[in-house]
Design goal:
With 102 residues, the chain is α+β, with helices and mostly antiparallel strands. It has helices at residues 19-34, 53-69, 91-100; strands at residues 2-11, 38-42, 47-51, 74-83.
């Protein structure tokens, strides 16, 4: 299972606020979570998505395309992938491992 930290940045918006674009992306993620394809967590700076790497890459493509559907002509997407194959770990497990050492 992999965890992806992804940030979708619409460029050339009418306002410095991007919350409406983030909300549309979250709706897509909710749909995939309801299908039990992924799990996700919105943070103040990005979104964490957890699941099979193949599924995650498909979802990332879909959310990257979302601002284009809203009329944006340029989108920058930052992706960071943590793909550990020796253990099945969830986002919460990583936090627990750190907290236990404090």
């Amino acid at each position: 299972m992999a965890i992806v930290d992804v940030t979708i940045i619409p460029i050339g918006t009418d306002s410095p606020s991007v919350s409406s674009y983030v909300a549309e992306i979250q709706k897509i993620l909710i749909k995939h979570e309801e299908e039990e394809k992924i799990r996700f967590q919105l943070t103040p700076m990005s979104t964490l998505i957890e699941g099979d790497l193949t599924d995650l890459l498909e979802v990332i493509k879909e959310i990257h395309e979302a601002p284009f559907q809203e009329g944006i002509q340029r989108v920058a997407t930052n992706i960071r992938i943590d793909d550990r194959r020796d253990k099945k770990r969830k986002m919460e497990d990583k936090l627990t491992a750190v907290n236990e050492k404090m």
